[in-house]
Amino acid sequence: MLIGNAPCSWGIAYPTGNSVTWQQYLDQLAEAGYRGTELGPYGFLPKDKAVLERELGRRALTLIGITHVHTFGDRSTAPELLATLRELAPLLRDLGARHLVIMDESNWYPAGREGVLDEAGWQGLIATVREAQAVIEGEFGLKASFHPHVGTAVEREAQIDRLLAETEIDLCFDTGHHAFWGQDPLAYMKKVWGRIAYMHLKNVDAAVRQLVLDGKLSIEASYGRGVMAPLPDGVVDIRAIMRFLEDMHFDGPVVVEQDVAENAGETPLELARRNFAYVEGLK
């Protein structure tokens, strides 16, 4: 089972303006032991196929896919999404990546109303997801999946259930984002197993999560407080998750993600190395 990571674990959320260069990211990723990477925000890693292929090869890295964030709550932006997918999908395909993950944009929702869509907004989201899947799979032969995410219109089990019922898209299932609201990741994985194509491994700090559940801390502020814990330290039973994936002969990507707290005490490289060692030790 190939264990990958992603630029977000180095605090990279945008193509430019980052404290880490793409060369430094790839160097540290390989140094930490990983052999696969997501593309990250489109434009962070080189868009030139020859350059990216050479740089990945120098570090014995494989391109797994991309998690592309878009404002699915705003139906008027669908043409922009489809145009972007048609630009980035060929790069993935040409470099042997099979997966393209799409995800709603949490920052689009007003504070205090994270993920709230009316019925018209939901129908717009569903229509955009269907159109995106048609481009990803029908035009480029890649595998599309949708990433439920905290602070978006698809984060709680009832919302995920409805997405699965009203579309044919499978899930990029994130253990941490599912557990954020006190939901049981493993139980839900078993419930919808036939619809999981991609995995993100992430964990949750119980104490910080409880502050959010009690209304004492905002979702946004919880990230800085370390709500997304290193894999060995949180409430999600990562060992049980990995055992289940192995028992089910899961052959999709398994990508570690680590949001770095403001006072983490460990660098992204140190966290990446510790998470990798932990997952490898579970095999």
Structure commentary:
- With 283 residues, the chain is α/β, with parallel strands linked by helices.
- Helix 3 (78-94) runs parallel beside helix 4.
- The longest helix is centred in the middle third of the chain and has 21 residues, at 119-139.
- 42% of the residues lie in helices and 14% in strands.
- It has a single domain (3-281), classed as Divalent-metal-dependent TIM barrel enzymes (TIM Barrel, Alpha-Beta Barrel).
Please outline the helices and strands:
Blueprint: E1 3-5, H1 22-31, E2 36-38, H2 49-58, E3 62-70, H3 78-94, E4 99-104, H4 119-139, E5 143-147, H5 157-166, E6 170-174, H6 175-179, H7 185-191, E7 196-201, H8 206-213, H9 219-224, H10 238-247, E8 254-256, H11 268-281
Parallel strand pairs: 1-2, 1-8, 2-3, 3-4, 4-5, 5-6, 6-7, 7-8
Helix pairs in contact: 3-4
